[in-house]
């Protein structure tokens, strides 16, 4: 079976993106679509400024056992409107929690989280809506199983910025010794930095063998360019930030074919935050709504604690690698909402 | 004011250690003693195998506003008995929550967490008890304000092991631009590793500028010595692990003179776990009881979100540096319970 180093290595999951770019817009929505019947799901919200939808339903003590889709979206809390397009599509498919005697009488529980990218394209009012959510879930449904995942400035990562650099969407998949697969998709939009200010190296590459540090002259030039871009962005936005300073948020979905209980999935979502901690510094600030969802397709047994531990460790690693891939795939942007260089432009 | 790069840089806090070493024992207890009247306190438990005492009282919705002391202890759940020696001492001082008409009628609420070091000295039954807890709190009370903190294989870190290496107790203090101080004390006893297996560098030193990697030949020799030590430990312990494999736990107290609400302190305890994530990999496994307490002495105002963010980021950094200092201060151990080389012996 060919692997694509993405969350779709967890067989059954599909990813779809939709975005609004131009005419003041720079935002988008990403849907992770579960197989029909849904996936076990959980969430761990660690940031201080979260924007979420239907996360309480995921508490393992509560009723709903599985979800059909998870939505990540730009547009801050406004962007959560995209969920309603995904729900409408799921309702048409008859997918969701049965709440009536007829097959189509369902309520799709669609957990979602939003990141703040308001105004990044210049127009504060350009946000994902229900039609964009529908476009994203339809895009997901059109993909084959095990399809590669589009990365970079697509979907929810379209308007993402991390420490002044253009952020984006990234995805990675890991196969564990047990044969279990752990995949992740991350949308990187952090108040903190993905780049070590001392050296210019990406934090998320510290854990992959000897770091090849950029030349000091390259790093100094990059820092100057980044400082100019930040100043230019401030000027184009009239220096305006809200009372709490810049708001951001890194979002991730981590998924596995390991058969997890909902409580175990919650632990996996928690451990996945260690991937954020390693790749972004600082992270989990009051201005970040950092949220990780976990999905289990329940294909492979978890026979013992050591196997579950490997899933926990793999979740952190898959998220860390997804963040690196997002940053490396991002392209620079220069528009009315600001100048956001890509890491690849600077180093 | 002289700073000691320790949790005692947060003025008012005192640290005391007591340990049991020899005759099969290799364990201990550490007390962080608040000023009279107590400190605002919170906790975040992220490991899968915690051993804790009075942590529910710290929920910001619950009654108790401040605590007089926090206890970290070896001996797994048995070692929580050390708390009762600390409570007895506090009762004698009339320190605790008033529950009766007379000044001395108090109940000291003493949150505590334990790490698993059972059998590390050879005797499974050698554990901290109430008298050891009393010794630790009396040691704390004898120290001056702003006293240096004993580090290495002392107190709760006496029997600590991290990825086969000797762990220990470490402490660090950071002064923020705002003038706020953030300090931490960590006891490093992890199922995961503090050392990058690719290079031999300490994970916790990745974030402090260019890493000076050990020579490959040094790293290879270190890996061989560590493998031999692990095999010898297995043989001395008759290969015996419980059903879940090796149990561990990294514990920390992070403290600040920033005036935090209990809910803010809880966020600080959470952010401090990012220090564990950066310095230990993997971490927060089912076999780890990883727990962080946060204390606020409420001396300095937190005027805005940016200042609180700096405290959150500083908490992660202080814990990360405490872990590095613990590992660098540890000394190797060779006894009936196993062979645990120190990082400094190998690199």
Question: In a few lines, what is going on in this structure?
Answer:
With 347 residues, chain A is of the alpha+beta class. Chain A has helices at 76-79, 82-93, 130-142, 216-236, 262-279, 305-329, 343-346; strands spanning 14-22, 25-33, 39-45, 52-53, 66-67, 69-73, 97-98, 106-107, 112-114, 161-162, 165-166, 168-175, 181-188, 251-258, 291-300, 333-335, 338-340.
What does this molecule look like?
Two copies of one chain form a homodimer. In chain A, 62% of the residues are buried. Chain A is an alpha+beta fold and 347 residues long. Chain A is 28% helix and 24% strand. The first copy, chain A, has a six-stranded mixed beta sheet with strand order 5-3-15-14-13-12. A five-stranded mixed beta sheet of chain A has the order 1-2-6-9-4. Chain A has a two-stranded antiparallel sheet with strand order 7-8. The mean pLDDT of chain A is 96. In chain A, helix 2 packs across helix 3 and helix 5 crosses helix 6 (305-329). Chain A is built from seven helices and 17 strands. Chain A has helices spanning 76-79, 82-93, 130-142, 216-236, 262-279, 305-329, 343-346; strands at 14-22, 25-33, 39-45, 52-53, 66-67, 69-73, 97-98, 106-107, 112-114, 161-162, 165-166, 168-175, 181-188, 251-258, 291-300, 333-335, 338-340. The longest helix of chain A is centred in the C-terminal third of the chain and has 25 residues, at 305-329. The two termini of chain A are 35 Å apart.
